[in-house]
Structure formats: C-alpha cells, structure tokens
C-alpha cells in the first residue's frame, strides 16, 4: 500500500510541475481535430442511446472543450493541478480527482475516453484492473476509446 502511494505521489509531482505547460505541448487545435475523428467513430459504433461521456485522465480538459458540445462530460484525473486548469477552461464540466485504476462513481457512461494515459500503467495487473474499472462504469452498449 505504501509503495502504491509513493508511486502515485511521484506521478502527481511530475504532472503538478508540468500542468502550466501542457497546453503548449498538446494544443487546443490538435485536440479539436482529434475530437472531429472521435465524433465519427462514436457515431458509427455507439449502441447506447445516452449522451454521458467520462473522460478519464482528462488532463487540462482540452478535448472536453469540444466533447462537451455533443456530450454531457465528466472528467477524472489523478492530478489536482491539471484539474484546476480544466475547471477554469470548462466551468460547465464536472471534474473529479481519481486514479483510473480505482476511482468509483455512481453513474454509468455511454462513452469512456482515456487519451495519452494508458501508457502510465506499468504492469498487466494494472492494465487489467483499469479495464475492469472502465467496464464497471460503462453503460450497456457503451463505448470505450483509448
Ligand atoms: C499526457 S496527459 C493527457 C491529458 C489528456 N487526456 C489529453 O489528451 O490532453 C496524461 C494525463 O494522465 C493523467 N494520469 C496519469 N496517470 C493517471 C492515473 N493513474 N489515473 C488518472 N489519471 C492519470 C495525468 O495526470 C495527466 O493529466
């Protein structure tokens, strides 16, 4: 347990320091284009009728800026500094602090997205735990995109 906490503290420190610069690395324009492709994919494959989208490891909320035009978005991230920026960018989106492996929400979502973050899972066990967690939060006929 202690080792897990230390590992998360390390990850958090990295993104806490990086948070103000993230928008220069992943620009809004790039994310706008990504979301255009994403909308097509979702339109083609989504089987559930709802419009609830959970953006896991949402970072500074760049994609949410565009996703919220079509979906009711909730964002989750491990890192409080990026969430602060995301909340300023998208005051109409709900942002929650949580680890993708362990977060628990009462709702189920039609779409779950997780961009540029699965790479932080280091082992097969972590990957399995995370995918199980996503499954737990997915509505029937829902879509997971990562
Ligand atoms: C490269 S950024 C991507 C942000 C956003 N998804 C995007 O594409 O612009 C990676 C994000 O993953 C988050 N992250 C890393 N490990 C996480 C975990 N175990 N649970 C939740 N978020 C995590 C970081 O805090 C960071 O905001």
The N- to C-terminal Cα distance equals 27 Å
SS strand fraction: 15-25%
Order of helices and strands: HHHEHEHEEHE
- Would you tell me the overall average pLDDT? 90
Number of helices: 6
The beta-strand count equals 5
Structural class: alpha/beta
Q: Report the radius of gyration as a whole number of Å.
A: 15 Å
Overall shape: globular
Overall tally of structural domains: 1
Q: Can you give the helix content as a percent range?
A: 40-55%
What's the CATH first level? Alpha Beta
CATH superfamily: Vaccinia Virus protein VP39
Low-confidence stretches: none
The CATH architecture would be 3-Layer(aba) Sandwich
Which kinds of small molecule does this entry bind, naming each only once?
S-adenosylmethionine
Q: What is the third-level CATH name, the topology?
A: Rossmann fold
Most strands sheet: 5 strands, parallel
Walk me through the structure.
The structure is a single chain. This protein has helices spanning about 1-20, 20-25, 30-45, 65, 80-90, 125-135, and strands at about 50-55, 70-75, 95, 110-115, 140-145. The protein has about 150 residues and is α/β, with parallel strands linked by helices. The protein has one domain (about 1-145): Vaccinia Virus protein VP39 (Rossmann fold, 3-Layer(aba) Sandwich). Helix 4 links the parallel strand 1 and strand 2. The radius of gyration is 15 Å and the shape is globular. It starts with a helix and ends with a strand. The relative contact order is 0.18. The model has no long low-confidence stretch (mean pLDDT about 90). Bound molecules: S-adenosylmethionine. S-adenosylmethionine (SAM) binds near residues 26 and 79.
């Amino acid at each position: 347990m202690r080792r897990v906490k230390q590992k998360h503290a390390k990850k958090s420190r990295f993104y806490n320091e990086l948070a103000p610069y993230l928008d220069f690395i992943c620009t809004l324009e790039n994310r706008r284009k990504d979301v255009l492709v994403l909308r097509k994919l979702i339109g083609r494959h989504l089987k559930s009728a709802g419009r609830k989208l959970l953006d896991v490891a949402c970072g500074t909320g760049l994609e949410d800026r565009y996703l919220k035009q079509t979906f009711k978005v909730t964002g989750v991230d491990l890192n409080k500094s990026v969430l602060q920026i995301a909340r300023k960018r998208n005051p109409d989106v709900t942002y929650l602090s949580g680890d993708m492996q362990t977060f628990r929400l009462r709702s189920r979502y039609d779409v779950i997205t997780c961009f540029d973050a699965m790479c932080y899972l280091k082992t097969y066990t972590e990957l399995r735990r995370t995918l199980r967690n996503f499954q737990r939060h997915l509505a029937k006929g829902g879509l997971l995109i990562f």
